[in-house]
Amino acid sequence: MTRIVLLIFLINISFIGRSEIKISFTAYQNEPDLIRKANMALELWTYYSRFNIDSLNILGVSLKKSNKGVNDSFVKGVYQRILGSFDMKKGFLKEGLFLLKSSRSIFINLGDNRLISEAFNQTGICYLLLSDFQHAQENFNASMEFGRRSESVTHSYLAMINLAQCYQLDGDLESAKLYTNKYIKSAIEGEKYESAANGYSFLGQISMDETKFEKAIFLFQQQMECAKKGSAPLILTRAKNNLAITFFLQGKPKASLRLFQEVLEERKKQSVLPYLCDAYLNLGNIHLEMENKNKGNQYLDSAIYLTKKHALITYNIEALETKYEFDSSAALKNEIVALKKKQKRIIVKQRNKRTLNAVPIVNKMSPENLPWYMYLIFLMTLIVLYVFSRKSLSHEG
Asked: Rounded to an integer, what distance in angstroms lies between the CA atom of residue 378 and that of residue 382?
């Protein structure tokens, strides 16, 4: 199957079971106290990192602007984390790492172990995406160490699932399984069932990679049970999606199709647009794989329409690329290329807002932008020229 692959484990599951947003961006904007505003931004960061990545840049720029003239260290650490996360998720890994490390240094100086734990987890994720497994492991271990020193029990194992993925990507599956099982045990003991569900999801992915389909099915069923205990409908639907993928790869297309249809209906009720698009794409793909061309194209077109209507350019590209796998027309290819160029322009524009809002654009060589010592040098040059000219005239006389 071309598109339906296991994307069930996301690095962002390290956010310890928080999928509901408790505050609004409007409430954040209207908050007059800068420290409370920064704490609200951290809550929004948790949510946007999972469901609305583009809003991270807006949030970070807004907080940076609020801090202008005040320069509070805590606030600076928060907006650097937010902007660093945006860069990391958009593929600017080195730039993101620079901001995240700067944010981490601020939190270390402030001495808040919970924030330090989260900061090391974030830099670890960035190193992981850079395939620097050694530094990733060091950062995840540091995250857990500071988590143990904090008052939050969950932070003591916050980074463990990411450490497990680090071992998996480095080819050490036994260590990956060991740390994932430790993570699940810690999460269940702390009654963090959404986190435990994500742990089972990752173990299921490993089993899928090993083509152990029966074991994968068992693990995804465990994921479902934990999602029910944790009242986590998004995770529950994801577990069904994982089972649907497993059934298809196991050669059971009818069972797979039934579950994918259930996922679509649930995604419609949940109203998380990226997940809804994904449900349409999976159904479109499976129908095309089963040679139900008309139905397959209907689902793919639904995904394309949805992404265009809501200006979800990243998902629009994904939807078009999925269709291109079955319809390699020049028109479709040109549309994808044009959209990718547009996406790049949008990201550059988003990142430029950080400096545009803080520093006016001026010509670096214009007179009003010259540093004071340049005027002094200019004046001294005139004086020297005047002295030499006087001496020259006296000699001629």
From this structure: 6
CATH of domain 191-267: 1.25.40.10
The amino acid occupying position 96 is G
Tokens 């649907």 correspond to: 244
Sign for the CA dihedral angle at 125, 130, 131, 132 comes to negative
Tell me the pLDDT tens digit for each residue of 120-145: 999 999 999 999 999 999 999 999 99
pTM for the structure as a whole: 0.82
Are 232 and 196 spatial neighbours (Cβ–Cβ below 8 Å)? no
DSSP 166-235: HHHHTT-HHHHHHHHHHHHHHHHHTT-HHHHHHHHHHHHHHHHHTT-HHHHHHHHHHHHHHHHHTT-HHH
Tens digits of residue pLDDT in 142-179:
999 999 999 899 999 999 999 999 999 999 999 999 99
CA 363-367-368 angle, to 5 degrees, is 80
Which burial class, exposed, middle or buried, applies to 74 when counting CB atoms under 10 A from its CB (0-12, 13-18, 19+)?
Answer: middle
Residue 132, token pair as written in the block: 């620097």
- Written as six digits, the tokens of 138 are 């060091």
Classify residue 33 by its DSSP letter. Answer: -
- Please, which contacts does 94-97 make with residues 24 or more away whose CB atoms are closer than 8 Å? 94/130, 96/126, 97/123, 97/126, 97/127, 97/130
Residue 215 identity (one-letter amino acid):
K
Q: Which tokens sit at 244?
A: 């649907």
Distance of CA 97 to the CA centre of its chain: 13
Residue 361, token pair as written in the block: 């654009």
Delimit the domains of the chain by residue range. Answer: 191-267, 272-354
Q: Are 88 and 107 in contact (CB under 8 A)?
A: no
Candidates 1.10.3470, 1.10.8, 1.10.4030, 1.25.40; correct CATH number of 272-354?
A: 1.25.40
Q: How many CA atoms lie within 13 A of 71 on its CB side?
A: 2
